[in-house]
Specification:
This protein is an alpha/beta fold. Helix content is about 45%, strand content about 15%. A 7-stranded parallel sheet has the order 3-2-1-6-4-7-5. About 30% of the residues are buried.
Length: about 250
């Protein structure tokens, strides 16, 4: 396991899939989990597992499949859990609290430091049964287009895991952006002078009344926060606009 500081929290989270019909959804779920830092997958009576399609769609998350726990009942998969969230898009007449996945992720944030947490998903076709939902402490739903709320199982897992990741971490990028050197005020003023000279040379602006048009051009470039390298690129274009290179046709 990773020694990343977020690992202890994520190690208390498990994804539980109930009666999954299509092995590809198991593999895609493993991939969705791993990209968000989760690794504990429980499968309640999957129709096909292990399966080559699951392994194929897991891509580089085959280790999640290799360590998956297969159980006969949902109760077995949840036996040592203190907080269970059922992810469901169906309207129910049950008295359980229903919240959005974002709200549920905040609940996970409070619980994962000291409790075993399970995220339970039903079958691809019908979702969680009432009996399965009864075993969950709260239900979470993904806000969607009311006219079409259908989501692929692995997509639903991805969204839930993403919301949890954003709740449990700072949400920082997993890589460092390459620092760029922005153009200085002096760089920009030399560019503007060069640009104005070339536009006057080609007859685009009137040298006797350039102000209004050129103010617009300054604002246009000013909004872009030009990098030093970009200013050099633009000035190279301006130079060749006045003195184009001659290219042979052959």
């Amino acid at each position: 396991m990773s020694n990343h500081p977020e690992t202890p929290l994520f190690n208390r989270l498990r994804v539980v899939l109930c009666h999954t019909s299509h092995p590809g959804n198991i593999g895609s779920t493993a991939r969705a989990m791993k990209t968000m830092g989760l690794s504990r997958l429980y499968l309640v009576r999957p129709k096909h597992f292990p399966d080559s399609e699951a392994t194929s769609l897991a891509v580089n998350a085959a280790d999640v499949l290799e360590h998956a726990v297969v159980t006969e009942t949902l109760a077995e998969a949840l036996a040592d859990c203190q907080f269970v969230i059922g992810v469901s898009g169906k309207e129910r007449s049950l008295s359980q609290q229903v919240m959005t996945v974002r709200e549920a992720a905040q609940e996970v944030k409070h619980m994962a430091g000291h409790s075993e947490v399970a995220l339970v998903f039903g079958t691809e076709m019908s979702g969680l049964s009432n009996a399965e939902a009864d075993q969950c402490h709260v239900l979470a739903t993904i806000p969607a287009n009311p006219a079409y709320t259908s989501l692929n199982l692995a997509q639903a897992v991805q969204i839930m895991c993403y919301e949890i990741r954003m709740a449990l971490t700072t949400g920082a990028l997993h890589y460092q952006e390459k620092p760029v050197e922005l153009a200085t005020h002096d760089d920009l003023e030399r560019f503007y002078a060069h640009l104005q000279a070339v536009l006057e040379h080609i007859g685009y602006i009137n040298p006797r009344a350039p102000k209004k048009l050129f103010e617009r051009l300054r604002r246009l470039y000013g909004r872009t926060r030009l990098e030093k390298e970009e200013v050099n690129l633009l000035r190279g274009i301006l130079t060749l606009t006045v003195q184009p290179k001659k290219h042979s046709k052959y």
